[in-house]
């Protein structure tokens, strides 16, 4: 301890040392999980650099000063929802409630039960298995298919908890501009778009109360195909959809037909590849957004309905690996290297289908 006390670090006031610790951890991200490579034959498994939390092992005094404060400062990044549960569901309620920043891929979670029954569970249901979660910011990267991204975000806006601010980022403007029509009224209600952000604003107003000042804002990149543009103020613009759109032929579509035709502004030539980000902020006054144990079940797609009263560890034990024999993919391990914690790349998918080898 004498040698440690003579260190230059301990010659400065604790308040300054605490600033140094905070600067380090707020620029650190811990990445876990796997994603499917574009060849659909290789699964890339990412893990943090070995030195990511080295400061916690530098000496006992530093470890004691930092304690658990690093949990509220680092960014936890998960390539798939299953890994998010593997890492977070085993934490104590106290430790989980300290985490403030999480990024996760928005694909559904594929579980395989005997005898080889493949079931997909959507992200809003997955989060219900993390009671205690109360993030400052949850970032979700849209997965496969425009209408499935829209549905994922719609469910998070309607039923999601555990976050104060949600950032949903899509590589395609088609998420807010696709056409969907089906004679099955239930499917139409499920996938038909609404004018945004007006509609989602009405949803959070009803959830939290207008007086609590919730908000929904939609940003769109100004350049096609430029990854990360939608995060920067100088390369994005705020957009507002109208409940009446006019197609390139001059035909107009009223609100009762909204979403049954493509939005030419968003999916026209050179427009679809502009990134979109929807930012949803829960009410600021008197809104308890922490994920609670025992919340009511979500319709018929809640994972808790299939496994009543079970923890994630118990659910995991009931599942089997989704591949065998020639269906088994190639695994490659990589260290997550980055210059900025908000850096990202777009990959085909995070879910491997062992029966068809399709990206889901």
TrEMBL record:
Natural source organism: Apiosordaria backusii
Name of this chain's protein: F-box domain-containing protein
Domain of life, per lineage: Eukaryota
């Amino acid at each position: 301890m004498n040698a440690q006390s003579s260190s230059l670090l301990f010659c400065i006031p604790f308040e300054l040392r605490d600033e140094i610790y905070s600067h380090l951890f707020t620029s650190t991200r811990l990445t876990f999980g796997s994603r499917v490579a574009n060849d659909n034959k290789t699964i890339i498994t990412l893990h943090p650099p070995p030195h990511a939390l080295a400061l916690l092992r530098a000496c006992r005094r530093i470890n004691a000063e930092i304690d658990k404060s690093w949990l509220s400062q680092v960014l936890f990044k998960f390539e798939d929802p299953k890994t998010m549960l593997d890492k977070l569901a085993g934490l104590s309620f106290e430790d989980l409630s300290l985490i403030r920043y999480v990024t996760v891929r928005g694909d559904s979670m594929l579980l395989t039960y005997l005898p080889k029954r493949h079931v997909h569970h959507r992200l809003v249901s997955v989060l219900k298995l993390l009671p205690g979660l109360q993030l400052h910011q949850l970032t979700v990267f849209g997965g496969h298919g425009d209408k499935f991204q829209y549905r994922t975000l719609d469910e998070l806006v309607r039923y999601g908890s555990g976050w104060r601010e949600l950032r949903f980022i899509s590589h395609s403007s088609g998420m807010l501009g696709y056409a969907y029509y089906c004679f099955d009224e239930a499917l139409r209600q499920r996938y038909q778009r609404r004018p945004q952000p007006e509609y989602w604003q009405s949803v959070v107003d009803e959830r939290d109360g207008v007086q609590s000042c919730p908000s929904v804002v939609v940003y769109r990149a100004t350049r096609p195909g430029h990854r990360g543009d939608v995060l920067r103020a100088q390369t994005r613009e705020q957009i507002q959809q109208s409940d009446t759109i006019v197609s390139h032929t001059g035909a107009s579509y009223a609100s009762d037909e909204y979403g049954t035709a493509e939005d030419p502004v968003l999916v026209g030539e050179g427009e679809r590849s502009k990134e979109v980000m929807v930012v949803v902020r829960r009410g600021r006054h008197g809104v308890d957004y922490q994920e609670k144990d025992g919340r009511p079940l979500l319709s018929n797609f809640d994972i808790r309905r299939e496994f009543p009263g079970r923890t994630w560890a118990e659910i995991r034990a009931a599942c089997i690996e989704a591949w065998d024999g020639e269906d088994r993919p190639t695994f490659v391990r990589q260290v997550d290297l980055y210059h900025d914690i908000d850096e990202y790349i777009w990959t085909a998918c995070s879910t491997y289908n062992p029966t068809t080898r399709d990206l889901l």
